[in-house]
Amino acid sequence: MLYPKKVKYRKMQTFREHPDKIGVATRGTKISFGSFGLKAMTAGRIRSNQIEASRKAIAHSMGKSGKIWTRVFPDHPFTQKPAEVKMGKGKGELEGYQAIIKPGTVLFEVDGVDEAAAREMLRKGGTKLPIRTKVIARI
Predict the structure, then answer these.
(1) 1 FRET partner, CA 20 to 30 A, in 51, 71, 81, 96?
(2) Distance in angstroms (rounded) separating the CA atoms of residues 77 and 83
(3) In which element (H, E) is residue 133 found?
(4) What pLDDT is recorded for position 106?
(5) Domain enclosing residue 50, as ranges
């Protein structure tokens, strides 16, 4: 699992996603390292275990050839209260870390494989994520 080594504050405020106010990504929108990438088309939050599941799916279908770059990192903590607990009594305990994703962010990049294989492995990786994605190629 990915998580930061150290954080200044243990709990953060909830990031609320309003469609009119979310905007689009301005950084991390172009392919920088590989030849093909997986780009987010909708906004959302991706937990660290979902990033790892997607990375494993891409790596499994890639085999021993090629290289993968993960372009997002879960640095935003989220909390959750236990099941069947009454309202009040403070904020829940830290549950894990998530990455806040804006539309247009490149999530993964691959290189060293042919186009058909790259598109298929990135498509498989995108199915593990809770947001809509598309495969892009370097121009």
Answers:
(1) 81
(2) 19
(3) strand 133-137
(4) 98
(5) 36-81+90-137
